[in-house]
Each structure stands twice: as C-alpha cells, then as structure tokens.
Amino acid sequence: MEYSEVIKNARTCIGPYCKACNVCNGAVCKNTMPGPGAKGVGDLAVRNYTKWQEVRINMDTICEQKPVNTEITLFGKKFSSPFFAGPVGAVKLHYGDKYTDQEYNDILVSSCAQNGIAAFTGDGTNYQVMIEATKAISNFDGMGIPTVKPWDLGTIREKMELVKKSGAFAVAMDIDAAGLPFLQNLNPPAGSKSVEELKEIVKMAEIPFILKGIMTPKGALKAKEAGVQGIVVSNHGGRVLDQCPSTAEVLPFIVEAVGSDMKVFVDGGIRTGTDVFKALALGADAVLIARPFVTAVYGGQEEGVAAYVQKIQAELKDTMAMCGAFSLDEIQKDMIWK
C-alpha cells in the first residue's frame, strides 16, 4: 500500500476538521479546534513545519559505500528507527466517529510494534481512555509509552498503577497540556507542576519518565532537576499557546543546556525522513510524529501505518547515505545548513 493511497482513503472517513492534506503543514486546518489545528490565529503549527523546511542538507557522497543502519536503543529497548508515533487522545472529538480511542490505540500500538517502533498513547477526561491505552500496550508486551495528562497527584497515582500493569517500558507526561481548555477549573485541580511535584511523580513511575512540552533551556534544566529520564521538545502542535517559537528553533539551545544528561526527543511539524535527519543533526536522540499517524490509521489501518513507517525509514536512509552517515551516531551538525 502506497502512502498516497492512504491519504486518499483517509479523506473519506477522517471527519469534518482534518482534510488529510498531501502535506500536513497546519495551513488548511489553521485554528480549527476541535480538530487538528493550532490555537489562536493558528500559525504555530504552520511555523513548526516551515522552520524544519528552512534547515537544509549538506550533501557529501565522497565516502565509502556501506549499508545504512537506522537502529536505536532507548531505555533498554531496540528500535528499527529513531521516530515514534506521538500521543493522540479523544479521536472521536477531533477526527470523527470512525474509531473509538480503544480501536485507534489497538491499531496504532500493534502496527508500530510490528514495524519496529513504538507508539505514545493519549489520555483524556474519560478515565476509560487510559484504561484502553494501557490495555493495548499490555497486549503487545509493553511496547508503547502511555502519556498521562498533568492531573492532580491522586489521579496521576491511579493512572500510574494502570501503566505499571501494562508492562510499558516507559511513561510520559505532556506537561504542556496544562494549557488545554478541558484541564482548566477541574476539582481537584490539574495543570502545571512544580519541580518538587515532578520529583514525586518520577518516583511514582518506577520506570523511565519522559516529560513532554519543554520549550526553553530553563524548562529543560528544571526537568533535569526533577530527575526525569527524557524530555520532548514540544509546543503541543501549537494547540496550547499561540505565538511560541517552533521546536526546530529552540531545539539546539535545549540540547546545549542538558547535553547528554537525558534523552531528548522533539516533535512538531516533522513530516519526512529528511526532517528526522535534521532533528538528529540538531542534537535530538529521536523524534515524535503525531498527525500523519492519525491519517495512516484512518486511511489504511495496520497497512496504512506500515506504509508511513516504511516511507519515513526510506527517506531517512536515503538522506543519511547522501550525507555519508551510515549509523545514527555518525549524523553530525555539519551535515545540515541552518
């Protein structure tokens, strides 16, 4: 199944907001929420995409010809490539009635695992969402990363128990979800967390803990102080605060601040294997891609996900070969022009 066919199929069933564009750049959906769009004027999702395109590749084929290896080991697990499916929740609200969260996660988690990568799963106000997500991960030997919203500590503790039962090899929290409307004015309160609260949450997790939603070196250093094992440089796809910089713009400064003290992921507007290469050249260990995986599920289920994974892998391998990098460790900053 070709990814072009996946996109065509998705347009028939993905709901009224997402248009399953050939290039998922945030331009058509703009400030469509519910839906895949960004907050406010809606330009941050567009900026995320555009800034990756402004990073260019320095081609160099004067090198020995060798096979390209894209394998990566993270938190004791080996993966075929350094990209993962990002967390998406409340799919009925944002993408129409075709799938429940359970059906979506079952397809995504299983097909990602079968193709050598892992899926982050979403969370929501409906407690069943986390139950279903962790069940999907349990069904595939823990090969997934549940993402918990920044609820009150009591709710987080309950959800961490579900995570532990799933056998997940890591867990995440999208701390930037503090800006989502449905987290406002809850009782008990949900939202931003202090360093001390994060330390407690890291202890609750008992497995590698990834904090998603870091956009400044200062934030990265606070995450380091809290003891997290990984961060995701992310502005939540532009969905929580208007007029932020793009993730491509802030990534190098965050990598410089924390060095190799923790694993650094990045998301936001990454759409091709070439974009993955650029992110790694700027210092990321791996990337997350969210919206196109939704299109893949809606447009082809397991086949659709496989088609997208294979597309990104092929593009990454081609870019690496054309720059003289035959393993991920050989990707260097001087291989891009910025």
UniProtKB/TrEMBL annotation:
The active site is at H236. FMN binds at K212, S234, H236, D267, G268, G269, I270, R271. Gene3D superfamilies: Aldolase class I. It catalyses: (S)-lactate + O2 = pyruvate + H2O2. It holds the Pfam family FMN_dh. Its cofactor is FMN. Keywords: Flavoprotein, FMN, Isomerase, Oxidoreductase. Coiled coil: none annotated. Residues 47-338 form the FMN hydroxy acid dehydrogenase domain. The keyword Oxidoreductase applies. SUPFAM superfamilies: FMN-linked oxidoreductases. GO terms for molecular function: FMN binding; isomerase activity; oxidoreductase activity. Glyoxylate binds at R239. The keyword Transmembrane helix does not apply. Belongs to the FMN-dependent alpha-hydroxy acid dehydrogenase family. This is L-lactate oxidase.
